[in-house]
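Could someone model NAP with this protein?
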Amino acid sequence: MTQLFGLIGHPVGHSLSPAMHNDAFQRLGIDAHYQAFDIDPAQFGTAIQGLKALGIKGFNVTIPYKVDIMEHLDEIDPLAQAIGAVNTVCNVEGRYVGYNTDGEGYVKSLLQVVNEKELSAKNVLIIGAGGAAKAIFYTLASQIEQPNVIYLANRTVQKAEALIGACPIEVKAEAVSLLHAKELLQEVDIVINTTSVGMHPNIDEEPLDLQRVQEGAVVSDIIYNPLETKWLKNAGQAGAVAHNGVGMFIMQGALAFEKWTGRAPDTKAMEEIVLKHLNHKK
Ligand code: NAP
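Reply:
Sure, complex below.
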């Protein structure tokens, strides 16, 4: 029988996950279907019960349900528990287990442009202190080669302080204001935007003035719509290495796929599908 997988969120209409996962199932000859489910917040509990009753084998979770889903699970992976959000659920013989693959997916994509062995020599600046920032911060902290220091800049500095304070892994880190972050750029090797600033339709906005960015620094934006934000374009012009959010999206999906099926999908093919859809949208 065809196995059911999916995505739950609200809204989910523009998600690229169904195209990416259904193509991967087909390539590996797995009889499965991935469906996006737009769940009305008032029906959330009932919808989850329904998916469980249908025997769904696994699903991704997106905004606004990454926290709400946790109380409906039988087990939560320690990293997801620390992050406080779940983006991937596996049905293991009727037990629903939650994971967070956002942080690991991001770090995998970052390591395509940064040598893993050199991570411990890098000063990292993360902009934002929301769910994505937390997943990335905690995953960077859990690397064998931890960064030399992680600065966390947020519009609301108290949220950055709280995020660092709640991290279960010891790591050299400091919460800073956006103003201070601008000055810090001259000693930072990797800058990561985890805010939604610059995302479609607000494509003229930028999360941080890059005037002081070092030549050769990696400037990374987890936004992938547009593919090249105004901020990334400016980074390239300033001599930095621009890194967009497509890699994170693909890798978080590939990690979920592996957990569900035990098989590694072709991430190059996934990237082609995603880029085809994003370029089509332009
Ligand atoms: P979130 O929890 O709502 O956090 C949003 C963060 O952005 C907060 O730190 C917030 O600051 C900051 N922010 C929002 N508007 C701002 C503004 N105008 N000026 C300055 N700071 C602002 O959201 P999230 O779940 O972390 O997601 C953030 C972004 O990551 C979204 O664009 C999402 O699409 C993207 N994302 C991408 C991937 C991928 O696969 N590439 C995966 C997950 C998320 P305050 O704390 O001060 O409010």
